[in-house]
From TrEMBL:
CDD domains: vWFA
Protein's recorded name: VWFA domain-containing protein
Domain VWFA span(s) in chain numbering: 8-207
Superkingdom classification of source: Bacteria
Organism name: Paracraurococcus ruber
Pfam family, one: DUF1194
Length: 208
């Protein structure tokens, strides 16, 4: 019998060439901090089954998205710490830039083959730039994921006033090209030091 959780969540994290070693460390630490925060754990506990299953994927290279932490069940502080330790310990995957569509395809396949069952399936993609080199464009991958019952949300890591080459804020690009499904949304972090705060708010909204 497949164990049930309230939400299946894949964290799709930008590991492309635009992120140096210090920024990468800040990013990983921000995710670990958010995943163990009491407010996030309270949101999990408020759900009918009191549990979620979370995996982490790194993306960047066309066709090169990599699962760095497979699905782990989180239901209490101890299991959250196990997930956070796995996030911090996972080796960085080799990535170039910047294939969001291929990342969404990879995450959707994971969700549909997950070792847990949940009515809510979510891809939570973070990045500091738009889709540039996907084998399948982000909009196409997003639409296919939504058709399969998956919600796609995004975390735009972008300083205030920064615009993409399309001349718009990154959050607007993600709103148009990345997110999808009922209730989908974009949150903005000003830099990687702000990821823990932004992700914490995002996780609470996704879970609760």
């Amino acid at each position: 019998m497949v164990p049930e959780v309230d939400t299946l969540l894949v964290l799709a994290v930008d590991a492309s060439g635009s992120i140096d070693a210090d920024e990468f460390r800040l990013q990983r630490e921000g995710y670990a901090e958010a995943l163990t925060h009491p407010a996030v754990l309270s949101a999990i506990a408020s759900r009918p089954r009191g549990a979620v299953a979370v995996a982490m994927v790194e993306w960047g290279s066309p066709g090169g998205a990599a699962t760095v932490v497979d699905f782990l069940r989180v239901a209490d502080p101890a299991s959250a710490r196990i997930l956070a330790e796995a996030v911090l310990a996972a080796p960085r995957s080799p990535q170039s830039w910047n294939a969001i569509g291929d990342a969404l395809d990879h995450c959707a396949r994971m969700l549909l083959a997950a070792p847990f069952r949940a009515t809510e399936k979510v891809i939570d993609l973070s990045g500091d730039g738009p889709d540039l080199r996907s084998l399948r464009p982000a909009t196409v991958a997003r639409d296919d994921a939504v058709a399969a019952g998956i919600q796609v949300n995004a975390l735009a890591v972008a300083a205030a006033g920064q615009v993409t080459r399309m001349g718009e804020p990154l959050a607007e690009t993600y709103r148009r090209e990345v997110i999808g499904g009922p209730g989908s949304f974009v949150v903005t972090a000003e830099d990687r030091r702000d990821i823990a705060r932004a992700l914490r708010a995002k996780l609470i909204r996704e879970i609760a």
